[in-house]
Structures
1.
Amino acid sequence: MLATAGIVPRDDTAWNFEVKFDGIRAIGYITDELRILSRNDKNITAAWPELAALAPADPPFVVDGEIVALTADGRSSFEALQPRMHQRNPATIRALAAAIPATYLIFDLLHIGDRSLIELPYLQRRELLEQLDLRGPRWQVPPRLSGPGAAVVDQSRRLGLEGILCKRLDSPYLPGRRSPHWLKVKNIRDQEIVIVGWKPGAGRRAGHIGSLLMAVYTDAGELTCIGNVGTGFTQSALDDLAARLEPLQRKTPTTDADVPDVRWVEPRLVGEVSFSEWTGDGRLRHPSWRGLRLDKEPRQVKRELIRHARSGTP
């Protein structure tokens, strides 16, 4: 189930609030052993060995949560998680797990034993999850926060957090659907993007990537250009992007954008940027690179619109 970008609901009594963490969404299947699937249904279990001790479980259960790298003050750091997202070499994974340990923040219970829970209201699922008492060295259930919602989001801003999630107490779990019954209220504006090309750099970046050409899919299924991003990169990120984009090169434009000196690529890679605002012509103002999102499929990437809460039951 996916959240919709929105504002804090007016009716605080119908909602619970949670901290929005900045990591990798993951479904955990806890049976005789642990199996973890990313949002695009890829098995990523091997990348997170420090979570293996969640299993075995009797009865088995299925949970939803976020894999994060937590800083000393308890905030999640997507940048710290980046070196771990792309690794599949067992020795490298073990070394990174020791240096940058991940934590699985579990916020929903979807199945237990032979019973599916997705039709139950959020509050009941959450209470059942809390009864499991999932507290371990690298996993935990983050707390539910009571309203008023405006005070919760203000406090999250003062603490430097990404934002909060607002979840209707009576909402069922809707697999694969983006619903206004889960709202994400962000302190930092970000947007998933599809990389459709790159422009060569100058100066210190001469001969290398200077900026990436960004696009999103429209509701009609067409790619539309939303500008370039040329800041926020580390040298290792640029080297990794160059290696990944090299086999994706193509001679014809990926979109109908009239941009000179672009090296066009197949729209296979998804990234994430922060930005200040959308311009009137549909471009991102002051975008800054945050990292690749290998857990996302390109055709899922659309412009995020701010929506208001929907009243009434789902």
2.
Amino acid sequence: MSALIVHLPETPVTASTELEYALTADGSSVARHGAARAAMLPPPGGAGGEVVAVVPAALVSWQRVDLPRGVALRSPRLRQVLEGLLEDRLLDEPEQLHFALEPDARAEAPAWVAACDRAWLRGALQLLEAHGRAATRIVPEFAPQSTPQLQAVGEPDHALLVLTGPQGVTALPMAAATLPLLPAMEAGTPWLAEPALAAQGEQLLQRPPGLQTAAERWVLAARSGWDLAQFEFANTGGARALKRLGSAWSDLLSAPEWRPARWGVALLLVLNLAALNAAAWRERSLLEAKRVAMRDMLTRSFPQVKVVVDAPLQMEKEVALLRQATGGASDRDLENLLGAVAGAGAPPGSVSAVDYSNGELRLKGLPAPQHAAIADALRGRGYTARSQADTLTVQAGEAR
């Protein structure tokens, strides 16, 4: 999944604001990162590339609510329900905030709600859209997760400690005085820091952190299941839906997590192709074996035939010549054709005219309603009959 990931600043965005961004070609690694005004941001690149807006941790508050019965992600009264549930917990008026419910939230179950300033978010998204970089998804920089993790982010003079885990997201200034305010952590809790904050973080926590750049963190955030584009910011319209479909297809073609599936599909195609080729080879072998057997039968039965071109036709001609030489009767002879018609139930004395030529017998005078019954009876005896007006044409074998 190729994407342009834009980290929104904490201050209101204007046309002159420098926006930090990261480009990824596969959805998991950083191909390029930097900062530019909205008008100068690079395109996502690649088929199905998308633009992802990242909301910084300092601007998102997290609340845990119990959704009442009948309320879920697509409920028309979800916004009103969330305002009622959170009204007494928020410092700002609910009307000034944008709410987003966690993925797969269900009624009558606890769910996380992310809240941020509505006007600030609207201004940032409108600026991106005005310069051809409309966000297809909005993700939080940090979100609650099952495994606790501590991170140091920001600039050395404005650094934050962010703790994520089942208890939510806690962001505090990076200082010794704020450490007691962090929720209790188990020993060995994973701990990461941006390279510029590694030494400061090690001195504060007395253990070295793992290193993770801001761009790497944003790419990781873009892969989460969260999407804050809900309610008024929900992605709608055919163009955006098509772009999301293209992004999903691109993800399927290039994302690392889909590599086993791609290999599996490729292997399945190769196996099917090999099986089809093997079946075709076997059919060709069987057909060639039958042709060889027919040629051998013809040359053994009629040694005078030196060149075999069409074995069945040559066999038929040789048999006809042999029958003619010995005076034997053929199914194509007039006597046998007349006997077959009589045995098929033709009424005696009903034939008014008989014409025979080249093994084909034409009878006139038979009642037209009986043509079909006579033809069915003849078919069981190895003859073919066709009806045209008052004439019934009979010949041995299949019609030519």
